[in-house]
């Protein structure tokens, strides 16, 4: 069983706080509600000790502040088999901002992955061996970065294999060129879909085990003796939030207790299966490029007029507007950094800035380490540039494009991230990147309200209490 635990970065990039969200009543906001319905009960029941899971950095950061006990439950549930076998833990990392990596620039992919790996290292106390790709969106360049960062494995949907007849009952390796390879375990589509979308299927864990899981192991097995596996991968929020009381279902399924007879199969984790085994021990396969687990058309859901959306004509113009802003931010930031850093140093510093975001290093200490001979003003300037880059990366979180209308909170939030990044750079360089962004946002229209993106942007700023002029 694998649970993908993630919530978007709901904190206002200007204030650092989540504004009250009445739709989450009786709780203050959606993070608080989902925590009470899902994260806390699953941690308290010990479910996490028996499954594989990834905990998104934006969610983990919120949880560590607002529910430290549950956060510690997630950390403590990562249980490698032994002191010398740290590759086999339950937990996997996740790239930082939940951006669709095949749509990102190569440098941005590298930063998102490095931030996710470093956040995991700081949070869990070990270097992760597996990583969850947001929406499992994948292509070969992304997998090559993972291999370069010493990631051993990831999880994909079965339709992300180039071979449509591939047997998901065993892990595989993907050759990446240059002697690089990575292990991929493809989840069982039917089992995962029944757990996720068929509420009657998860009413009784014993029936689910007997009628749905056990038949997966009734065949002859693999000729080479490889154990047959069945991976169920779902959103972690399924267990208590999407489906009420399903934390009880999960507890009974993965940790049944002495009153349940041998079911005919063992419960294990992806880390135990893959983590300590050399990639060369697995059969080779190839991936289908630019695919994901929640879009039937590759990655169109986050960039264009995907048929999965009733009217997605706004998605392409929004991405184009933010990509133009990102390019402008990078050019200006690079030019300003050139006054006190060698070429390319700003981007290397960006890759390590996650330590400041996490709180492992003070901002001033970070700046002094990177530019020890600089003036106080130059160190402050560096931190402004890196904060701008932080929110420039955050504005590509997948949630901004997932739904059917840009007037939703998720899209407004990526616009706020864009506003924060643009205002930081405009303030440092006396540019007008925000003005150009507002112009570009006029090119998209809300299907429901028929207002353009600039009006939505101004609404988002007003809702956040920020000046709109």
In terms of DSSP E residues, the strand content is: 5-15%
Helix run count: 18
Give the CA-based shape. Answer: globular
Count structural domains.
Answer: 2
- Overall radius of gyration: 23 Å
Q: How many E-type strands?
A: 9
**Class of secondary structure makeup:** alpha/beta
Q: Compute the separation of the termini in Å.
A: 50 Å
Low-confidence stretches: none
Q: Give, in order, the helices and strands.
A: EHEHHEHEHEEEHHEHHEHHHHHHHHH
* Average pLDDT, all residues: 95
The name CATH uses for the topology of the largest domain is 7-stranded beta/alpha barrel
Helix content: 40-55%
User: Could you give me the name of the CATH homologous superfamily of the largest domain?
Assistant: Glycoside hydrolase 38, N terminal domain
| Name of the CATH first level of the largest domain | Alpha Beta
Quaternary organization: single chain
Major sheet description: 5 strands, parallel
Task: Describe the secondary-structure layout.
Layout: E1 2-5, H1 30-44, E2 52-55, H2 57-66, H3 68-76, E3 91-94, H4 106-124, E4 131-132, H5 140-148, E5 153-156, E6 172-177, E7 180-186, H6 189-197, H7 205-213, E8 233-235, H8 246-254, H9 270-275, E9 283-285, H10 315-337, H11 345-352, H12 354-358, H13 363-370, H14 376-394, H15 399-402, H16 409-429, H17 433-441, H18 453-463
Parallel strand pairs: 1-2, 1-8, 2-3, 3-4, 5-7, 6-9
Antiparallel strand pairs: 6-7
